[in-house]
Design brief:
InterPro entries: AKR (IPR020471), AKR1D1 (IPR044483), Aldo/ket_reductase_CS (IPR018170), NAD(P)_OxRdtase_dom_sf (IPR036812), NADP_OxRdtase_dom (IPR023210). By secondary structure, the chain is α/β, with parallel strands linked by helices. The chain has ten helices and ten strands. Helix 1 crosses helix 2. The chain binds NADP nicotinamide-adenine-dinucleotide phosphate.
């Protein structure tokens, strides 16, 4: 059997499918050389990746789009083989800004539609082109969001054919319920992209989402890049975990491969980021082994319930999602 991410996908509630493995494309724009995302996405398509996770605020969407378009032009893939997820940033939540923000992503990618478009965070900022608006005292300037109004504007973009599937990210249960219970809801959120890995297994949110046909897309599935400027380093390095190491030895797999396999085996989509050719290859090799029930339980037991991505600088926002238990 030809093992590719294409035939390892899960259904979404709207009838589309999402590949269980995608390539994360966030690299620190201050330290990542120009062209790195472009080269990485091209290589990833050659390796077999079909799902790419990007965003306008990653500042490399033009490179990701160029790589995808070139791989379509050279006949390696067709547009319909590719699954691209884009994200609506915090400064574009007012309904009248939603379609222009999406169109900006489409123009940057030079594609006609995105496969999935998600509200990146429930926390709206002052609307406009300053992505991180701050006042003279250096405090973030927030904005009141009616998440349901934002959602209705997204529904209109889907109806216009610019988006295949609609989802959210960093939403807690209350915020998901707000959308699911919206009077006149036309399109349900198909997915919720949240931090998810063996040290933060999300048992309660996962169960709630399963009950509501919402697929969890796990970000930072390898425990992040451990960049001290935005990562909580109180949580120890995931990839040095002894249990993952010992399970990996049994299958001749790395801790990264065991961590990714754990999630896909329980139906959680993973989007590991790598801009290294060797690790892009390595992270794709997770469909040729499986973990026993006992090993899955052992890994579930590693849960520390500590986030690497706490976003504490926005914890005073009225819609900060992580005060609630889940
Ligand atoms: N929605 C959100 O709010 C949100 C938040 C965070 C992330 N995300 C998405 O999720 C993606 C992944 O999350 P992330 O970037 O935070 O972290 P991650 O995927 O958990 O980890 C990435 C780090 O691990 C390294 N790495 C990759 N493969 C490896 C391997 N096999 N062995 C050892 N190290 C390896 C990478 O370095 P190299 O590049 O050098 O390989 C990089 O430093 C992001 O790129 C982004 O698309 C979304």
């Amino acid at each position: 059997m030809n093992l590719t991410a294409e035939n390892h996908s899960v259904p979404l509630s709207d009838g589309n499918r999402i590949p269980l493995l995608g390539l994360g494309t966030y690299g620190d724009p201050r330290t990542t050389p120009k062209g790195t995302a472009y080269e990485s996405v091209k290589l990833a398509i050659d390796v077999g990746y079909r799902h790419f996770d990007g965003a306008l605020v990653y500042f490399n969407e033009h490179e990701v789009g160029q790589a995808i378009r070139e791989k379509i032009a050279d006949g390696t893939v067709k547009r319909e083989d590719i699954f691209y997820c884009g994200k609506l940033w915090n400064t574009f939540h007012p309904p009248e800004l939603v379609r222009p923000a999406l169109e900006r992503t489409l123009k940057t990618l030079q594609l006609d539609y995105v496969d999935l478009y998600i509200i990146e965070l429930p926390t709206a900022f002052k609307p406009g082109d300053t992505f991180y608006p701050k006042d003279e005292d250096g405090k973030y300037i927030y904005h009141h969001t009616d998440l349901c109004a934002t959602w209705e504007a997204l529904e209109a973009c889907k109806d216009a054919g610019l988006i295949k599937s609609l989802g959210v990210s960093n939403f807690n249960r209350r915020q998901l319920e707000l959308i699911l219970n919206k009077p006149g809801l036309k399109h349900r959120p198909v997915s919720n992209q949240v931090e998810c890995h063996p040290y933060f297994t999300q048992p309660k949110l996962l169960e709630y989402c399963r009950q509501n046909q919402i697929v969890i897309v796990g970000y930072s599935p390898l425990g992040t890049s451990r960049d001290a400027s935005w990562v909580n380093l109180k949580c120890p390095p995931l990839l040095e975990d002894e249990v993952l190491l010992s399970i990996g030895r049994k299958y001749r797999k790395s801790t990264a491969q065991v961590a990714l396999r754990f999630n896909v085996q329980r139906g959680v989509v993973v989007i590991p980021k790598s801009f290294s050719p060797q690790r892009i290859h390595q992270n794709f090799q997770i469909f040729d082994f499986s973990l026993t029930e006992d090993e899955m339980k052992q890994i579930e037991g590693l849960n520390k319930n500590i986030r690497f991505v706490e976003l504490l600088m926005w914890s005073d926002h009225p819609e900060y999602p992580f005060h609630d238990e889940y």
